[in-house]
Amino acid sequence: MQSFAALGVIIGSFLALTEGDVVSNFQNEPDCIKFFYEGKVPQWGSTTSGAVRLCQRFQNTYHFATLYDTYNRIAVYSAYIFGPSNGGGRETRWFVEPQLVNQNWGGEMKEGSVLEKEHPGVYQGDRQALNEDYTKSGFDRGHLNPNGHHAVPSRNATFTLTNVVPQNPKLNQNAWANHESNLARIFKAQCDKAYVLVGAIPSAGNWIIKNNVKRVNIPEYMWNAYCCVNSNGIPVRSGAAIALNTDQNSVEEYTLSEIVEFLQRFSNTPVGELFYNQCQ
Question: Taking the model in full, what pTM does it have?
Answer without folding.
Answer: 0.91
